[in-house]
Design a protein that fits this description.
10 helices, 468 residues, five-stranded parallel β-sheet
Length: 468
């Protein structure tokens, strides 16, 4: 099997992703920030792979973003390899001691198109070797930005001559504060320790020709440029896709804005739009800030998705000011939104349903009770009898919640718990055993809504109380 670890946001840990003795893995599009500072002699890593062999699998580490707090903490590494990985590419390592750390024989690891920003050392060989990069002496197109107090390349007790670096010269001279430092004349290669040999740097007139795509970046660009269309509810789906991309860019600002001006332009234009104002209002609401009302008063919705979000956010504010209660007219308004198809009415529909859950026993499943195909046909769940065989207990729950459900081979189940603002408070995979035991330690006392989905089909929704 191939183990996939992608699209995670990981903060404040000593090791973000640690792979040991796995045969076949892909680590991509993760954002790992704020590594814990544990002091000298304690190694911390954004991504660490050791003791693994991919065999015939195409294993790789790409499109990840790792950022620490200080480039002078050289016990921290962005990506550290103690084994051969087929590809390390399109990664950004920023404000960290060692950008790319190779501590073993990693011959055959293609290291290309990585961005190193403000590292104590950019590429660091520690008794390690990565071998000649890209056949035919093609340039790797790695780039160094900003400050590198120790060096761009460092060979510690390593024979750097076995890992030559070919760089494509794109500018006549390199000022690290103005442009990527890819000029061989300005790349500093340092060596130290017993048997150490400097990593040689050669200018290549051949571009890398590296064809590995960054699926996430390409999808973001396609959505940002309005080139992505949907077979149903196209206008609303495109709005929500752009909102998701914008939300990701706000959370992972440095990943795609370092060298992607089109995405930076997209993010700036959305910030100044109604979508950006609604995004800002949502953040203010989540933080219980009074400024959200001022923002909402300036919002002029241009479509049903924006109107629903504005209406729901205003109702949330009103409810808070009235002891989390709603008038009959407000409940009626929430019901009218909740009754819409969320694929057309957008996120506000789900928010309205969550707000209504303690007040309304209706089941709103318009348009999403089954899968919708490209032809627009609804397909019912293959085993509707499963719905009657799901049990969630105890309810109210204290520390442990049990989900009794029978999953067949090939079925994947997920329990998601939402708070009353519609924010995900807990998400857990369901096991193939008949009963999944789930810790609720991270949930505060109060009322929640849970949803159980099997193979992308919602099968059960209900209220959940947590008591302490």
């Amino acid at each position: 099997p191939i183990y996939y670890m992608d699209n995670n946001i990981i903060k404040r840990v000593s090791n973000g992703i640690w792979i040991t003795n796995l045969n076949g893995f892909e680590i991509k599009s993760n954002a790992i920030t704020n590594l814990s500072v544990l002091g000298s002699s304690v190694m911390q890593n954004g991504i660490l792979a050791e003791g693994s062999r991919g065999g015939g699998y195409n294993i790789g580490i790409w499109s990840n973003f790792v950022q620490a707090s200080s480039l002078y903490d050289w016990f921290q590494s962005g990506i550290r390899l103690e084994t051969t990985v087929s590809t390390v590419a399109y990664n950004t390592v920023q404000d960290i001691g060692r950008g790319l750390f190779f501590g073993s024989v990693c011959t055959g690891t293609e290291t290309a198109k990585n961005n190193m920003i403000n590292n104590y050392s950019g590429i660091f060989l520690n008794w390690g070797v990565i071998g000649a990069q890209l056949s035919g002496q093609r340039a790797t197109e790695n780039s160094w930005h900003g400050t590198f107090p120790e060096s761009h390349l460092f060979s510690l007790s390593s024979n750097g001559s076995q890992s030559p670096m070919y760089v494509y010269k794109t500018i006549p001279q390199c000022d690290p504060t103005l442009a990527p430092c890819t000029d061989p004349v300005n790349i500093r290669s340092v060596f130290s320790g017993s048997g150490a040999v400097q990593i040689p740097v050669f200018e290549s007139t051949i571009v890398s020709g590296y064809k590995m795509s960054d699926p996430k970046r390409e999808l973001y660009l396609k959505i940002a440029k309005d080139e992505f269309h949907f077979p149903m509810y196209d206008a609303s789906a495109r709005w929500m896709s752009k909102y998701n991309v914008y939300n990701k860019l706000q959370a992972e600002d440095s990943i795609y804005k370092v060298d992607e001006p089109e995405l930076k332009w997209f993010a700036d234009s959305v910030t100044a739009s109604t979508m950006g104002e609604l995004h800002k209002a949502a953040k203010e609401l989540a933080n219980n800030n009074d400024n959200s009302l001022t923002i909402l008063n300036s919002v002029a919705p241009g479509n049903i998705v924006e109107q629903n979000l504005k209406d729901v956010y205003e109702l949330v504010l009103s409810g808070r000011s009235n002891g989390n209660s709603f008038s009959k007219a407000q409940i009626k308004k929430l019901q009218s939104i909740a009754a819409q198809c969320p694929y057309e009415g957008g996120y506000g529909v789900y928010c309205a349903r969550v707000l209504l859950a303690p007040l309304d026993n209706r089941v709103y499943n318009i348009c999403e009770s089954g899968r919708i195909t490209k032809s627009g046909l609804k397909l019912a769940p293959s085993d509707t009898s499963m719905i009657n065989n799901i049990m969630v207990y105890p309810n109210p729950a204290n520390d442990i919640l049990n989900v009794a459900i029978h999953l067949e081979d090939g079925q994947t189940g997920v329990l998601t718990v939402y708070d009353l603002t519609g924010k995900i408070a807990l998400s857990s995979m369901l096991t193939n055993s008949n009963i999944s035991e789930i810790s609720t330690a991270l949930l505060s006392e109060g009322l929640y809504i849970y949803k159980i989905i099997v193979n992308d089909i919602p099968l059960s929704t209900g209220k959940l109380s947590i008591i302490r």
